[in-house]
């Protein structure tokens, strides 16, 4: 999906975005490419947020956190569907989005595009801030090395950067749509910030995987610290021989569920599930 977004963006520039509208050879084609690129922007941001929230659900076992996370997840999913459809159908017929400048006097109908753009941007910023702040109370409880704290800080700094991009972008929306008589020139700023926001948003959910790859290539910088005290192990209850699951949390790295087995008055533990965390 990101590849399609990037390809459409490149084709939009090739067709004349950045030039004055009267210097563009095929204005309808340029506006059409821009319109479909906008659709993929909405979908990519929504899917990236869903990816981050599902990552939270995988590494944080706290019930209150998970319930709130599911609520935000539902909100993001619903918002993504609604704004994808509203953007797709913002003008009827859809072709009005790239042929409306011709003003042939047909029965074309469009929503208030500025209001829709501002609403989408404002909700997007609110979701970014909530998703960014959501795990902080739990992360503050971690006792990890300075190096791992730096890695977490870097991840969250990118999250703050996304919020900044969203806020800056909302100030460029005013020229975007109804107030423009020169769209290929006036839409340049909003296009820049849309692209920056999209690419950084895609990077953030992939940071744990990127770190795992870099830890193999540069173990001295990104590798796991094996020194004592890096991980905090929760205190398990004494084995009872009843088969109840005991959760050992290796903070910052791995969650391991252990099943106690009473055999000849001795307790044995077998790894039954290993889930990679931060």
Strand runs, count: 5
- Give the averaged pLDDT, no decimals: 75
Rg over alpha carbons:
24 Å
What would you call the shape?
Answer: elongated
Secondary structural class: mainly alpha
Instruction: Give the amount of beta strand, in percent.
Output: 5-15%
How would you write the strand order of the largest sheet? 3-4-5
**End-to-end distance:** 26 Å
> Which stretches are poorly predicted, pLDDT < 50 over at least 5 residues?
226-278
The main β sheet shows up as: 3 strands, antiparallel
Q: What percentage of residues falls in helices of 4 or more residues? A: 55-70%
Listing every helix as H and every strand as E from the N terminus to the C terminus, the arrangement reads: HHHEHEHHHHHHHEEE
Number of distinct helices: 11
Subcellular location: Membrane
Pfam family, one: Fung_rhodopsin
Signal peptide: 1-16
Organism: Cadophora malorum
Structural account:
- This is Rhodopsin domain-containing protein.
- It is a multi-pass membrane protein.
- Belongs to the SAT4 family.
- It is a single chain.
- The strands form two sheets. The chain has a three-stranded antiparallel β-sheet with strand order 3-4-5, with no helix packed on it. Strands 1-2 form a two-stranded antiparallel sheet.
- It has helices at 2-14, 27-59, 63-88, 96-99, 113-133, 136-139, 146-172, 183-186, 188-203, 207-217, 219-222; strands at 91-92, 109-110, 246-250, 254-263, 266-276.
- The longest helix has 33 residues, at 27-59.
- The chain is mostly helical.
- The chain is elongated, with a radius of gyration of 24 Å.
């Amino acid at each position: 999906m990101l590849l399609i977004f990037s390809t459409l963006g490149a084709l939009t520039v090739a067709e004349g975005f950045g030039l004055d509208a009267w210097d563009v050879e095929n204005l309808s084609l340029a506006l059409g490419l821009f319109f479909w690129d906008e659709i993929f922007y909405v979908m990519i941001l929504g899917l990236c947020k869903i990816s981050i929230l599902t990552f939270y659900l995988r590494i944080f076992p706290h019930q209150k956190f998970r319930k709130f996370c599911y609520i935000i997840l539902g909100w993001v999913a619903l918002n993504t569907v609604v704004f994808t459809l509203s953007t797709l159908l913002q003008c009827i017929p859809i072709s009005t989005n790239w042929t409306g400048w011709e003003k042939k006097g047909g029965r074309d109908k469009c929503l208030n595009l500025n209001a829709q753009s501002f609403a989408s941007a404002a909700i997007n910023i609110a979701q970014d801030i909530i998703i960014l702040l959501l795990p902080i109370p739990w992360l503050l409880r971690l006792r990890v090395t300075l190096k791992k704290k730096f890695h977490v800080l870097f991840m969250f700094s990118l999250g703050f950067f996304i919020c900044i991009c969203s806020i800056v972008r909302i100030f460029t929306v005013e020229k975007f749509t109804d107030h423009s008589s020169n769209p290929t020139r006036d839409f340049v700023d909003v296009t820049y910030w849309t692209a920056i926001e999209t690419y950084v948003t895609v990077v953030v959910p992939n940071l744990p995987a990127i770190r795992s790859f870099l830890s193999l290539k540069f173990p001295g910088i990104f590798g796991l610290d094996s020194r004592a005290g890096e991980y905090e192990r929760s205190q398990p209850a004494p084995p009872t021989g009843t088969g109840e699951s005991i959760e050992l949390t290796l903070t910052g790295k791995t969650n391991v569920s252990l099943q106690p087995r009473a055999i000849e008055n001795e307790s044995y533990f077998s790894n039954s599930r290993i889930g990679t965390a931060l």
